[in-house]
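User: Hello! I'm new to structural biology and keep hearing that structure can be predicted from sequence alone. Could you demonstrate with Stage 0 sporulation protein A homolog? Please show me the input and the output so I can see what each looks like.

Assistant: Of course. The first part below is the input, the amino acid sequence of Stage 0 sporulation protein A homolog. The second part is the output, the predicted structure written as tokens.
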Amino acid sequence: MLNIIICEDNNYQREQIEIIIKDELKKLNLNMSIVLSTNTPENVITYLEKYKTNTFLYFLDVDLKSKVNGIELAKIIRKSDPMGYIVFVTSHAELTLLTFQYKVQAMDYIVKNNLNSMKDKISECINEAYNDYKNSNTIKTNSIQINAGNKIVYFNLDDILFFETTSKDHKIRIHTCEEQLEFYGTLKEIEKMVSSNYYKPHRSYLVNTKKIKIIDKDNFIIYMINGESCYVAARYLKGLLNKCSI
């Protein structure tokens, strides 16, 4: 479930934002709630340390009268919640330009100069974040999330041919019919994330058995549907054949 975190140092303005959000959630009939409303960025950071696998919609003031401003907080948030939805609510529209410098990928900027405008913008952000989260979760049901440098990439498990280790330590290469992508990880970690269609026929490969075209038993070579090949160790050949016959 997608829930909401608010960080606003002005108590009156924070209560205003809370009221608007609660009214909009009730009006839109969405299964969401405010799980944290605070005046300090430290409370947000502490909360995320406890729930770092969750995704949230954040409403952050830019000027928090703290050592950590809203934009710096957003950068910290991105490390634990890379897919989170960040909305800046501020009286200083000119400060929003800093978000490009910090590369925090804000969803929107809401200026506190008009209550009705704030309501409309908050409603739009809640709706958009909710629908995007719902749709992305549908896509992710049969997907694997790959952390490739500064971006998160989702691959449908049915589209993947195989994973293989590379010559670089702890670096894996993923193969599909359309592309290849390298990322840091181990086959042991990947094994826990894939479906039962996958089999590890060799210490260097993890193969989608549904994408195998030919198994050369004499030369211990697996040919995938696109012509690419990988190896099967002799001791795993029987297990691979059994897996493919299911």
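User: So the tokens describe the shape?

Assistant: Right, they're a compact way of writing down the 3D structure. Reading them back into a model, for example: The chain has two domains: 3-140, 144-244.
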